[in-house]
Design brief:
Layout lengths: L1 H28 L2 E6 L7 H16 L4 E6 L7 H9 L5 E5 L22 H20 L3 E8 L4 E4 L13 E4 L2 H9 L3 E4 L5 H6 L5 E4 L1 H6 L8 E3 L7 E7 H5 L3 H35 L3 E3 L3 H34 L1
Parallel strand pairs: 1-2, 6-7, 6-8, 9-11
Antiparallel strand pairs: 3-10, 4-10, 5-8, 5-9
């Protein structure tokens, strides 16, 4: 009898231990890991914001959802990221919004020169365009999480440019359809160059001028191959973070809420970080010998005329959706 009781108790203990072990295995297997490709290096403020976003999600979900950030195009190159997420090769990713303007004009509105040349105006334009962006992404099985602007765009060159005429014939770095069109309208020669290739492109003579942010200029050490930065504040292009809809739908309700909460915080944090970035990186340009130029009235007038042309072209291309975005922005 005693032996029987001992065996029964032992059996209970073994069963309990087995159940505990299986629960432990289940807990480990319940962890979801998302690999996240991003285009820029770890020192970039967008990447740093994403790292904080990933950490927030890990904390908010008690580790049930973990995002592994693969920066600097190490998992997928910038042009490949959107389709990789769409196809489910990566669950989540980051891209420059205007890179997608060739597939739909809606994604190019934030790169129309002088349409929204300040942070306040850029935020209003984003709110006006966001519903259309979400609709376009949803049709492709993607969910917009948040968007953060780069610092305002300025013109870099090897000399001071006093008018648009000074841009004629210059080999001009382009990174999307809008910068390519701007170069064409200015009489420059557009050349597609990604951020990591900027120093080499200038040193080999592939390009002679570019329009980009103080952030990209400082990160690329523009002082090694340029001398002037014209603070035109032409526009504030945005990066966006989005997720594969299937991957998002597979999360628990609590995990979905955690992701959206972290996205809201990342967006707010990112916009403030962009402002800090503008001031800090402009100061770095000056410290390293770049001459920061207040654009002449003649240069601004010429660029503004280009902006008016591009705004009209964008509205025509975007059709009723574009008209609705501009009306919402103006109102």
């Amino acid at each position: 009898m005693l032996q029987s009781r001992f065996l029964n108790r032992a059996g209970v203990r073994l069963a309990a231990a087995a159940a505990f072990g299986l629960a432990g295995v289940a807990a480990v297997s319940a962890e979801t890991k998302w690999d996240m490709p991003t285009p820029y290096g770890d020192s970039n403020f967008h990447t740093q914001n994403i790292a904080a976003f990933a950490e927030d999600i890990k904390e908010k979900t008690d580790g049930s959802l973990v995002i592994q950030v693969h920066s600097a195009g190490s998992l997928f190159k910038h042009p490949e990221i959107k389709n990789a997420v769409r196809k489910g090769l990566a669950p989540i990713g980051e891209v420059l919004v205007s890179r997608l303007s060739n597939e739909d004009a809606v994604f190019g509105v934030d790169s129309v020169p002088f349409l929204a040349p300040s942070y306040d105006k850029a935020w209003k334009l984003y709110q006006a365009a966001k519903p259309a962006m979400e609709e376009k992404l949803d049709a492709q099985g993607l969910v917009l999480l948040y968007a953060v602007p780069w610092p305002p765009q300025g013109v870099y060159a090897k000399k001071e440019l006093t008018s648009v005429d000074d841009m004629k014939g210059l080999k001009f770095r382009a990174y999307n359809a809008a910068t390519e069109r701007l170069a064409q309208l200015a009489g420059a020669v557009p050349t597609q160059v990604e951020v990591p290739d900027i120093p080499t492109a200038f040193s080999t003579g592939r390009v002679e001028a570019m329009i980009t942010s103080p952030s990209t200029g400082a990160n690329s050490k523009a002082w090694d191959f340029l001398s002037h930065y014209h603070d035109t504040q032409a526009w504030l292009p945005k990066n966006m973070v989005f997720v594969n809809k299937g991957a998002f739908d597979a999360l628990s309700d609590a995990e979905k809420a955690a992701v959206m909460d972290a996205a809201t915080e990342a967006e707010k944090r990112g916009w403030e970080a962009s402002k800090v970035e503008t001031n800090g990186k402009t100061a770095i340009l000056v410290e390293n010998g770049i001459t920061v130029v207040e654009p002449s009235a003649q240069l601004i007038e010429g660029l503004a005329a280009i902006g008016e042309t591009m705004s009209a072209e964008w509205q025509a291309e975007a059709g009723e959706t574009g008209t609705a975005i501009l009306e919402a922005y103006k109102n």
